[in-house]
Task: inverse folding
């Protein structure tokens, strides 16, 4: 107990240190009146369809590998490995492409890798007579890596990342290195995030160095789970060294296990006459381990931006699918159950010896209880409980879908049954007489990589 208290105090000190490090830096940077030119401006462009539509705090509530480009702390919440691809078209010949990878590492760490490429071709040079004399291209390229860890007992995630930058211009090339720090605290559907992006670096060219615009952000999000879907809403405020203050608010609605709808609003305080329209929208489709996301961002003075992202999760369900439990197993080296030989009743009767006069026949053992009774046996509400608290995996509209989830959970040796109480098809894991016991059981499942939820039962 004493060791746990010391560990919690140490983690709290780390969080407070990050808060006092990031926020004063951001506020002081906003108040800085120094005018100048910043390099690697492509780092400000959000990566992926989710980030284009939602603020980072909401996008991180269903984390995927794209979060390496915004807050590496939430990558620790991914149960298994993921591969991420994204492409966005900006103007005619300008495109932003990204790739991300998350893999488990020892000591409950998540190791992630990512790369972005902003490429533009067909830049033509003209002489005094207006004739084309040259045609060139330029690009911005970066390589990122990050380490993340989540402390499940207190709901805290921390992450640190490093990014190598390279910029190619027709005349010269530049390079640099920046760092990112992030924290994420999640408890009972609430999430708070603090992040510092692209700090401590500059883009160095042979002629001169250009500082990189560091950004600092704080956000709050909340998840609601009514009977007809899941809502994730939140807001985020960010500051940068270029005196730009940005306010973003967004919401994601998971209508069913296969469809997610998103929308967001952004306001830039220092640029009241911005060329970007403030509202964006998008959606996501989930097909087993594959997720397809799309975002539309309208522009005022040039063509709108379309962003498409693909995510593949090495598990039973995608990282963005929150309607069903995250039943992906950790790499524990478990062997699959060995199939038992099937014997008929006739063969069994021949194999058993007949009782003699001195032997009394052995009583036939009682039939085992049905799987439904075994699953809910010791999970009935305790005496004196008003209605009890249920640990459920998901809510379905069709019996076939609910039964499929029950079969998947039983393969993992998790007792589950279909419960029809309340007019819904729920996949029930257990029932308890108090919320404290239900939350304790929920924490045990979460340590094994399974994400369920607790609901209060009616009287």
Result:
């Amino acid at each position: 107990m004493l060791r746990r208290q010391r560990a919690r105090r140490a983690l709290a000190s780390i969080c407070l240190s990050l808060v006092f490090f990031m926020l004063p830096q951001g506020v002081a940077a906003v108040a800085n009146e120094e005018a100048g030119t910043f390099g690697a401006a492509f780092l400000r462009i959000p990566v992926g369809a989710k980030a284009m539509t939602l603020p980072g705090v909401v996008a991180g509530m269903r984390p995927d590998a794209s979060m390496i480009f915004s807050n590496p702390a939430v990558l620790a919440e991914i149960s298994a490995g993921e591969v991420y691809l994204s492409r966005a078209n900006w103007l005619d010949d300008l495109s932003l492409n990204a790739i991300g990878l998350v893999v488990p590492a020892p000591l409950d760490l998540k190791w992630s890798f990512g790369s972005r490429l902003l490429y533009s071709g067909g830049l033509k040079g003209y002489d005094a007579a207006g004739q084309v004399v040259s045609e060139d291209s330029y690009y911005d390229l970066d390589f990122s890596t990050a380490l993340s860890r989540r402390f499940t007992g207190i709901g805290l995630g921390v992450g640190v990342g490093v990014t190598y930058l390279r910029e190619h211009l027709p005349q010269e090339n530049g390079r640099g290195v920046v760092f990112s720090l992030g924290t994420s605290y999640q408890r009972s559907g609430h999430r708070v995030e603090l992040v510092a992006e692209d700090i401590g670096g500059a883009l160095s060219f042979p002629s001169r160095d250009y500082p990189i615009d560091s950004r600092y952000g704080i956000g709050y999000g909340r998840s609601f789970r009514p009977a007809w879907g899941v809502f994730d809403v939140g807001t985020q405020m960010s500051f940068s060294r270029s005196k730009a203050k940005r306010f973003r608010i967004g919401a994601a609605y998971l209508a069913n296990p296969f469809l997610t709808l998103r929308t967001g609003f952004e306001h830039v305080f220092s640029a009241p006459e911005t060329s970007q329209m403030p509202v964006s929208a998008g959606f996501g489709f989930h097909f087993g381990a594959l997720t397809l996301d799309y975002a539309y961002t309208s522009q005022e003075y040039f063509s709108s931006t379309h962003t498409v992202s693909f995510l593949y999760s090495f598990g039973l369900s995608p990282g963005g699918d929150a309607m069903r439990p995250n039943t992906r197993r950790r790499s524990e080296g478990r062997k699959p159950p060995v199939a038992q030989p099937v014997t008929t009743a006739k063969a069994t009767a021949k194999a058993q010896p007949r009782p003699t006069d001195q032997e009394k026949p052995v009583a036939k053992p009682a039939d085992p209880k049905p799987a439904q009774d075994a699953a809910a046996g010791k999970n009935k509400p305790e005496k004196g409980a008003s209605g009890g608290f249920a640990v459920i995996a998901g809510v379905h509209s069709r019996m076939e879908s609910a039964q499929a989830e029950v079969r998947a959970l039983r393969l993992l040796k998790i007792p589950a049954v279909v419960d029809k109480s309340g007019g819904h098809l729920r996949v029930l894991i257990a029932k308890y007489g108090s919320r404290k016991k239900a939350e304790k059981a929920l924490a045990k499942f979460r340590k094994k990589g399974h994400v369920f939820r607790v609901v209060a039962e009616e009287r």
User: Anything to note?
Assistant: Residues 48 and 221 are 19 Å apart (CA to CA). The mean pLDDT is 75.
